[in-house]
Amino acid sequence: MNYSMKKLVFLPLFFVMLFLNSCQEEGIEIVQEDEQEAIVANSIVANLILRTSTLDGSNDNILDGASCINIQLPVTVFVNGLEIIVDSEEDFEVIEAIFDELDDDDDSIDIVFPIVIVLSNYDEIVIENQNQLEEFIASCSDNNEEDDDIECVDFIYPLTYSVFDTDDNIINTVTINSDEDMYGFIQEIDENDIIALNFPVTLEFSDGEQVTANSVQELEDILESAVDFCDEDDDNDYCDDDFDIESLNEILLDCPWVVHTVHRNGQNSTEVYTQYVLLFEEDGIVRARRRNGEIVDGTWNTEETDNGVVINLNFDAIGDFTLTWNVCELGNNRIKLYVPNPNGNVVDHIVLIKNCDIIFDHNIDQIENILKECFWRIHRLRIDGVNHEAEYIGTPLKFEDNNVVKLRINGEFVQGTWEIIQAGSGFALQMSFDNRPNLNLTWFIAELENDEIELENQNSEMRLKRVCPDSDDDIVYINQTLIEGTWVVAYFEEDSIDDTTDFNDFSLDFLASKRVHVTGNSQDFGGSWMSYRNDDGHLKLALNFMDHDIFYELNNRWKILEVSDNRIELVDFSDDGSIEKKLVLERN
After folding, report:
1. In this structure, what are the phi and psi dihedrals at residue 452, rounded to the nearest 5 degrees?
2. 474 within some domain
3. pLDDT per residue over 466-482, tens digit each?
4. Which of 354, 377, 399 is the last residue of a domain?
5. Which residues constitute the domain of residue 327?
6. Across 7-11, 338-342, 424-428, 551-555, which has the greatest mean pLDDT?
7. Were both Cys, which of 156, 213, 484, 529 would link to 218 (CB 3.0–4.6 Å)?
């Protein structure tokens, strides 16, 4: 940067010319009452200002793994083979999300050269290949090693410096608008310059607090206090989230944590620990609820180390969790615990997902109340490796008082019994229906949330999802629209073949009982229907006509694309994301 105003001090010819120029400050004389107000070359405060304005290169460590350089954006990279154009810092989060998606230890990022890097002194260098980049990376400090820059406080710009001649006359005023301006200005001060910073000067700490310096001494004190004020996040990897031990403890204690991923000793042990839940308590006790409901107690504590904050976990009964773990990705309801090896790669890691809806310690009354609140649709039913959930599309369970449970079949309630019982250290759901052997099991409650229940029985599993139709205005509208009048199949397409004529002359009457009464072509039969919103927020219409004639082709959990008083457009997607079926219903 060209500091033309400042060079007036360095070059006597320009000094005299501007001093005599008609645009000068008319010989205004400033007498400095306190010599300490001057900024002297190589003084303590000058060096602190230089360190505070030094470029911090740690924000893009996910790209270069170096905290003393920045890669100038935009830059094109390939992340696990996927091309990403990085044109803002928000794209760093996109890269991190790709790395985290499968918790793959073999994540890779390849930079498309040439690129431009910016050094800590703001010099720009063109880099032609990875080898050249590695040379600059090697010159940076090691992981979390102390460096010169002060990152925990920032100047609030603009601010100004006054430039004096030897007679204490102001010959120029320099405005500083950025750290780069500040760095260049301070770096060029020499012992013969007479420079004064115009106070007050405002600074902002990393925690958001703003402070004001009214003198050089106050500024020096503030900058000195910022040297060790925060964790400067100089980890040379993407696990570089800024947090302290207090914020970690607060987040851990906030809610239960579901175990999402476990890798230990080179093995993916996620399946072993799926649906485990951890509950951190104030007294240093951490409780782990296994998926069979058994609760195992362990201990935990956090501490500051040279490599950042770590958490120590100790379980006598769960060896894979017992370790001193580094912590990263503290945010978005997700924590990753990891142990880096000497090469910097993450080998052992656990990913935890916060879930405040989980009730860690259940009792029978709580479980019963949760079940009785709304309907429960059978989202998944797998018996001895065979899927059966298609049999229960649009046929939710309704748990009622006096151990009565009802199931809609063809729109009519089939009544059975239910009971919550103690099963070891956990709980189980017992159900009994006539002619429903797949449901008549003692289902152990592996996971219980307010809106979702995971049930297990040896080689069988069932997942129930809550449906409360009266609490969703869109569902209320859809239900009210469907039960008013009768409907016809205006269009039906499967695999791009128009089969609408198969449904000619049939009339569908959606009843409030969730029965669909179908008449036409000398036929009279029924089916079940249910509208709901799924986990992704999409509106769905479930139709189930069992194996009845051609109408079995409409058995599906249809996504609602469009709904009006007289028309509903539905689609079903194949595994590759393409539309497999289309269904349009129109009011008679």
Report:
1. -160, 140
2. yes
3. 999 998 999 999 999 99
4. 354
5. 245-354
6. 551-555
7. 213
